[in-house]
Structures are given as C-alpha cells and as structure tokens.
Amino acid sequence: LTPARLAEWLGAQDRGRLLRMAVAARALRKTGATRRVAELCLELATR
User: Fold this and answer.
1) Rounded to whole angstroms, how far apart are CA atoms 32 and 22?
2) Mean pLDDT in each 10-residue stretch from start to end of the chain (47 residues)?
3) How far is Cα 38 from Cα 27, in angstroms, rounded to an integer?
4) What pLDDT is recorded for position 37?
5) What domain range is 12 assigned to?
C-alpha cells in the first residue's frame, strides 16, 4: 500500500460508508490498535 493508493482509496469512499466502517471498527476495537496502525503507516512511509 502506497501513500498515493491510500489517498486514492480514501477519496473514493463516501461519508456513509466511512461512518459504517467506523461504527463497525468501534464495536471490534482493540486497545492500542490506532497507535499500532499509525506506527505501521509511518514505517511504510519511510521505506
């Protein structure tokens, strides 16, 4: 996944879909997951 591809994907999503995804993610949340995803994004961006 490249930063450009992530931006393209996010830009193609509508607000309703993103909201549904957020609600579903919240129901399945794991403590510390946001931090881990951010760490992985930074790691991938610096490759």
Assistant:
1) 16
2) 91 95 90 91 92
3) 19
4) 92
5) 3-45
